[in-house]
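TICKET: design request
STATUS: open
ATTACHED STRUCTURE:
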């Protein structure tokens, strides 16, 4: 991550506390969006939304990704704190935004990972085969590894 000051696009390292603050702001925004969306279904029969909840959340996070990271190289929390993602593969010292491929990988790992984590219990709960249990354990391990990587 990089912080840009003024009109210059110089790269400054970002403090870890600022990154954690940005994560908290992002979580708060996601909770706000989800609560506003679920309030639209307040008058419906209970359980209508529960059956498709992981897919609906993934779609909402896809929309958030499209209008934040894809278009502005920063999440909402990062934009508030004047932090942007930086392309570390670039050879220049100046700030370079993420490439489209990097943005797509970000989407796959964040939105796709969350969806898979929430949906894997439903996908593999009815299967009693040994191979399905191995796949489920592998997915749980991968989700834990992604959370660890986010923390680091």
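STATUS: resolved
RESOLUTION: sequence designed for all positions
ATTACHED SEQUENCE:
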């Amino acid at each position: 991550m990089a912080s840009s000051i003024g009109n210059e696009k110089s790269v400054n390292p970002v403090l870890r506390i600022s990154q954690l603050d940005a994560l908290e702001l992002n979580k708060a925004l996601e909770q706000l969006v989800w609560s506003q969306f679920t309030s639209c279904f307040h008058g419906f029969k209970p359980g209508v939304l529960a059956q498709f909840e992981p897919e609906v959340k993934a779609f909402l996070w896809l929309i958030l990704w499209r209008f934040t990271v894809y278009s502005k190289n920063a999440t909402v929390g990062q934009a508030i704190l004047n932090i942007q993602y930086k392309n570390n593969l670039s050879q220049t010292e100046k700030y370079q935004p993420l490439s489209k491929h990097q943005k797509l990988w970000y989407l796959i790992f964040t939105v796709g990972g969350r969806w898979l984590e929430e949906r894997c219990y439903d996908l593999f709960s009815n299967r009693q085969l040994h191979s399905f249990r191995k796949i489920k354990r592998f997915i749980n391990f991968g989700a834990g590894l992604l959370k660890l990587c986010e923390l680091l």
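CLOSING REMARK: The chain has a mean pLDDT of 82. The CA atoms of residues 128 and 134 lie 11 Å apart.
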